[in-house]
TrEMBL record:
Keywords: Signal. This is Tail specific protease domain-containing protein. GO terms for molecular function: serine-type peptidase activity. It holds the Pfam family Peptidase_S41. InterPro entries: ClpP/crotonase-like_dom_sf, Tail-specific_protease.
């Protein structure tokens, strides 16, 4: 007779790990918040960065505000919202709380439709079938919800994800517009304009669906194109949007680079980074060098940037993790592992000596204007050069954009990139829930203003077209290329 209760308990635990009483979620949120704060204080460079007093101010203020939200916590998602609210307020794109433990069968509360952003407009991108209440038609333009324009509402949503007031942040959160994270934030009524011009005012009703059902309405974000190029009528168009490690084997990469070095009759080159996935920066630079020869300039006497790593226990553990990964990939005699081991010892020595920072050279401190002044020139290409970015261009995509923008003759087109962060080199810290905190360990110093904290790279020529439409982008780029 005891078998059935045991089986039932096992099934409930397997199907929904998050179906727990509200008090459990409040306790979990408090524990998670405290652990996240402890990690930030123990390992984030901003916590001891005298050049960023706002960081410490938000730590105190944001923590108290997040704690005040605890009585509203009644679910896994509201637990995430409390922790993310605290972290988002630091306005550091490198500081991220990951949703590692969510399962496809866990429930989320949604309003039955998904919002998309494209070409300056918010529209209904998808609806869930079988919804009990009226839903807007796919393609309808969202005018307002509860008297707020979509951007206003998304600014409020951003406090649970990313505190930087950037267009790309708001647009990227469109897909989460109708998801309910915190009790009390539910939409009541939204107004739409249909393709026929009809204005619809619809009451909003939330229902719990599985995460898998919610994922059945995926956002129509740009899909990273595979790396490739076309050469047509003297125009070399290079899609460098997929920088992912392993997207090409080493042999294929080298063969492709050799092929590109031998290209003839190239009069213009476009580096198209739309939809960048971001990891294999070295290959992107190899492509750039293969077709242009790289940039030649005399920077003798130029000042240098530098970085400072925080000498924390978190950094030591991260170096040990990287050493293990290097040995697993390259064997016990890995040169990378040896270098990392030496670097880890610098952290240990700094801690022993009571030093908070380890300084590391960051290269030349040169702005875009400096390269113009130095009359920098490409070694093997003198034609027209363009860079295309969208607002999703972040991390290594943005680094690549910074690099090629040094060419004085280059014209940057498209949308402004995502913002940079002065904090970099992520460690991963496990929190009580099983989710991880992505925490930067290093702060960059003496960077040019255009590469400063939370600065975007603005295009020379904004393209006011749908950046997901290849034909429209190509037409706009060709029209904007210098004659």
């Amino acid at each position: 007779m005891k078998l059935f209760p045991l089986l039932l308990a096992a099934l409930l635990a397997a199907v929904t790990a998050h179906a727990a009483p509200e008090t459990h979620w409040r306790d979990q949120a408090a524990s998670e918040l405290d652990a996240a704060r402890d990690a930030v204080r123990a390992g984030h460079p901003g916590a001891i960065d005298k050049d960023n007093p706002a960081f410490g101010q938000w730590d105190a203020k944001g923590y108290e505000q997040a704690r005040a939200m605890l009585p509203m916590v009644d679910s896994y998602d509201s637990m995430l919202a409390v922790v993310r609210y605290y972290l988002a307020g630091f306005q550091d794109g490198s500081l991220t709380y990951l949703d590692d433990v969510r399962k496809a069968g866990d429930q989320v509360s949604v309003a039955g439709w998904r919002l998309d952003y494209a070409n300056g407009t918010y529209r209904v991108g998808a609806v869930l079938s079988g919804w009990a209440k009226p839903l807007p038609p796919v393609g309808a333009r969202l005018l307002s919800c509860d008297g707020q324009a979509p951007d206003q509402r998304l600014r409020q949503r951003a406090r649970y994800f990313d505190g930087r007031d950037l267009p790309g942040v708001r647009h990227g959160l469109a897909a989460a517009f109708t998801r309910l994270d915190m009790r009390g934030d539910a939409l009541k009524q939204c107004t739409f304009r249909t393709a026929k011009g009809e204005v619809l005012a619809l009451a909003q009703h939330y229902s719990a669906v599985t995460a898998q059902e919610g994922w059945a309405m995926p956002p129509t974000a740009p899909v990273p194109a595979p790396f490739g190029y076309t050469l047509r009528d003297g125009l070399l168009w290079i899609r460098v949007s997929d920088f992912r490690e392993g997207s090409q084997t080493a042999e294929k990469k080298e063969a492709l680079l050799e092929e590109m070095r031998e290209l003839k009759d190239v009069r213009a080159i476009v580096f198209d980074t739309r939809g960048s996935a971001g990891e294999d920066l070295q290959f992107a630079y190899s492509v750039y060098t293969a077709v242009t020869g790289g940039l030649s300039y005399d920077a003798s006497g130029a000042p240098r940037e530098y970085g400072e790593w925080r000498a924390s226990d978190i950094a030591v553990k991260e170096m040990e993790r990287r050493i293990a990964l290097a040995k697993a990939a390259e064997g016990p005699d890995s040169r990378q592992a040896d270098w990392l081991d030496t670097f880890r010892n610098q952290f240990l020595m700094a801690q022993k000596d009571g030093r908070h920072w380890i300084e590391q050279d960051g290269g030349l401190k040169l702005s875009r204007a400096d390269f113009v002044f130095m009359q920098a020139r490409l070694r093997r290409f003198s034609g027209k050069l363009a860079l295309v970015t969208d607002e999703n261009c972040a991390t290594t995509c943005r680094d690549f954009a910074e690099g090629v923008r040094r060419v004085p003759a280059l014209v940057h087109m498209g949308q402004a990139t995502s913002a940079s962060s002065s904090y970099t080199e992520a460690a991963y810290v496990s929190l009580p829930s099983g989710n991880r905190l992505q925490l930067p360990m290093k702060v960059m110093r003496e960077r040019p203003p255009e590469h400063g904290h939370n600065r975007v790279l603005a295009p020379d020529v904004p393209l006011r077209v749908d950046m997901r439409n290849d034909a429209a982008v190509r037409k706009a780029v060709l029209a904007a290329l210098p004659r």
